[in-house]
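Quick one: structure tokens for this chain, please?
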Amino acid sequence: MSKEILITGGHVVTLDDTLGDGLGDGLGDALGDVPGGDVRVRDGVITQIGVGLRPGPDTEVVDARGRLVIPGLIDTHRHVWQGAIAGFTPQMTGYGYGPAVLTGISLQHTADDIHAGTLWGALQALDAGITTIGDWAHALQSADHADANLRGLRESGIRGLFFYGGPGPADDDPNPPHPLDARRMRDEHFPGDGGIGDNNGNGNAGDGDNSGTGNGRGGNSGTGTGRLRMGMALRGPCFTSPERNRQDFAFARELGLPISIHVGMAGTADAVTALRRDGLLGPDVNYIHANQLTDEEMDLIAASGGTVTITPSTDMLMQFGTYPATGRALERGIVSGLGVDTVCSAGTDLFSEMRLALAAERSRANAESLTRNELVHEVALHQRDMLRLATLGGAQVLGLADETGSLTPGKQADITIVDLRSPHLDGFGDPVAMLVLGAGPADVETVLVGGEFAKRDGTLVGTHAAKARDLMHETQDRLRAAIH
């Protein structure tokens, strides 16, 4: 029997603005906002959006009156394993972060600690309305650590990309190769870059070895949730030698996996021009931060079809650059998304990132006028530009826009419902403005991923949430003992 959910009476912001077919019949036209709207979900897929939709006899009805119904938020860059050490480095710049975290506390993490931190970190994201995540997993010392990281993601139920990073096994090489275990991980868990089947052997139909149904590319039976893909978190030209960088890029492309690298942070330079010199630019590369890139480098990203991830909180709190790259990327038409980055030094939600990105870009765009003590007559960007970065833009960055990022019939039912009835959100103007300017994780009432409830009535769903808290606290206790 098919499972149907009907979300009723909410202000539905679909982020679906595809061009209509011009026939004027309402078919194929942009959906836009639907005040007092309904969203029908069947078997994990959005099937209908409208007003006055009627439930069937077995339909589960979710009352969304007084709420904003939006696509699940998408975080394109987060070190999810850090879930157990949130707030560890709140006053550190990037200069201090390396020895404190990357060559410090991360090396104290056992595989069990990585599992606990990743599971809790993914639940932090789901609690904040984030249904899809780009997990830049860079605390993987061994195959056991990598498997533990993936297991944490899988158990949480979140969608996203697992970007396999380092440091890999201990090595005297000052420029160690990307962990070769990435090949084993891809072959075992992501055949054909196909995602992962669910625990009943039902994956997403496609190239993988399964007989499942749904959208997207395939998976293998009995190892996961069908929601995860794999990518490569490479050191990039800023953090390894040119020769090793070329080898790492070749390895990722041999495996057919998308690439994500850090560039444009204070203290680094010429990353994108180095990639051009070595013939490594391409649409499969995601550039994180990009604060300090030159105009020429931004143009090279745009021309090569690369994408940018903007992480406003860490960019500014950790002094990666004067301003986030928001406006400079968008004015060039570069596909861009938002990321939380490191919860060691920042928060855990994208509402804060949307607000800070908007404020910082308006400040950057008008800096010259302000230095002349001139009144500014208009401001750049719009609150809806920020919501787009946190939803559809993020889906495009991760290559998942056919599956998620907008409330469009045929896409996966990744849906976040925000309660607007609180005094700080019950406003007069555009409800999206209230969301971007004032909402937080506590306002997220309901979260669905693939039509399954991850949060309901303001509380994470499932016994795994309580278990995850216990595991996280065990990891915290062990790490405190190890570093003191």
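The mean pLDDT is 90.
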